[in-house]
Amino acid sequence: MLTSFPADELYRQADRVRLEAVGNEVHLRGLIEFSNICRNDCLYCGLRRGNEKVKRYHMTEEEIIETATKAAEIGFETIVLQSGEDLYYNTKRMCRIIKEIKKLDVAVTLSIGERSPDEYKAFREAGADRYLMRIETTDRDLYHKLNPGMSWQHRYECLMTIKELGYELGSGIMVGLPGQTIESIADDLMFLKEIGVDMAGIGPFIPHQEPPLANEGGGNLELALRTMAAMRLLMPDINIPATTAMESLHPQGRIMALKAGANVVMPNVTEGEYRKLYALYPGKICVNDTPVHCRSCIGMKIQAIGRTIGKGKGSHRVLKVGSIN
Ligand code: SAH
Ligand code: SF4
């Protein structure tokens, strides 16, 4: 299915299952990239500690809250706070930010990497609803090669803690990593099903211009779309985003994804220069746009393919077994 099954047919089936299981709505999440400072050195990532060419920033608490307020004003009902692993945002600071944003009557998703169980608990108690952390790959050897100093087991345990604390759990993988096999991508999908994700994203790996992976081939859009479509067939009712990395490989990448199983889009609501500086990979889309522009641009694209913008917070709704043919 990931390589030889006719792609058009796979996408059609995923689209059908998506419609039956989660309907026609596309849920929007406003993404705030609040810090590009990171203690880790993931070889694939432009923000890794060792990349000295990055101009580093972190937004102030006030800036983050103001950005979230504006996003809520233009209609976002979920705010995603994403950053490198930046410990300036300690428990106290994060909790203050979460509590303020929750006053806007939005769902709050955190995507700030690996923290201690006590911190996850404190963030949850402060009001965070969801947590997004990709496992990246289930090939342990590959993970350890690409993430020096990190432990796959530890990342897995973080995901389990997050789930036990009652967050909606988001995870996912990259496809096209150097050394990654199709078999391991299939294992990744089974893993995501086993841990019971509420949301999962598939992103094509896009090589960064800075070494060490600058000359690697990277992922292609078709493999990412195929993987995502297969995931929809495996997990009919979860939330699946059309990822920004897909659109960075093709101007219609997110629309293609929405027609092949996806039901979520996460437009960037970060403002000004910060958008450019949060460069996980090169060629990231919309770095010169404004939140209002991005919201209306994706809104029009969604409506043009006959879909509607989701109302409400767009939480994962579990379907009863056997309700899809
Ligand atoms: N620091 C947090 C969140 C920010 S990184 C974390 O690592 O969980 C968000 C995601 O960006 C990562 O999970 C990874 O899947 C993706 N990413 C990083 N570098 C990338 C690249 N070169 N191409 C495509 N996606 C990339
Ligand atoms: Fe840091 Fe996340 Fe990039 Fe790894 S992927 S270097 S943890 S921002």
| Total strand segments | 10
Helix content: 40-55%
Strand content: 5-15%
Bound molecules: S-adenosyl-L-homocysteine, iron/sulfur cluster
Main sheet specs: 6 strands, parallel
Overall form: globular
| Nearest-integer average pLDDT | 95
Q: From the alpha-carbon coordinates, what is the Rg to the nearest angstrom? A: 18 Å
Poorly predicted runs: none
Structural class from helices and strands?
alpha/beta
Rounded to the nearest angstrom, the distance between the terminal CA atoms is 19 Å
| Secondary-structure element pattern, one letter each | HEEHEHEHEHHEHEHEHHEHHE
With strands numbered from the N-terminus, the spatial order across the biggest sheet is 2-3-4-5-6-7
Tally of contiguous helical segments = 12
What does this structure look like?
This protein has 12 helices and 10 strands. With 325 residues, the protein is of the alpha/beta class. Strands 2-3-4-5-6-7 form a 6-stranded parallel beta sheet. Helix 7 (182-195) links the parallel strand 6 (168-175) and strand 7 (199-204). The chain has helices at residues 7-22, 61-73, 91-102, 117-126, 140-146, 152-164, 182-195, 221-234, 244-249, 253-258, 273-277, 291-304, and strands at residues 25-28, 30-35, 78-83, 107-111, 130-132, 168-175, 199-204, 241-242, 264-265, 308-309. The mean pLDDT is 95. The radius of gyration is 18 Å and the shape is globular. Helix 3 (91-102) runs parallel beside helix 4 and helix 7 runs parallel beside helix 8. Bound molecules: S-adenosyl-L-homocysteine (SAH) and iron/sulfur cluster. Residues 44-45, 82, 84-85, 111, 113, 133-134, 136, 174, 203, 205-206, 208, 245, 280-281 line the site of S-adenosyl-L-homocysteine.
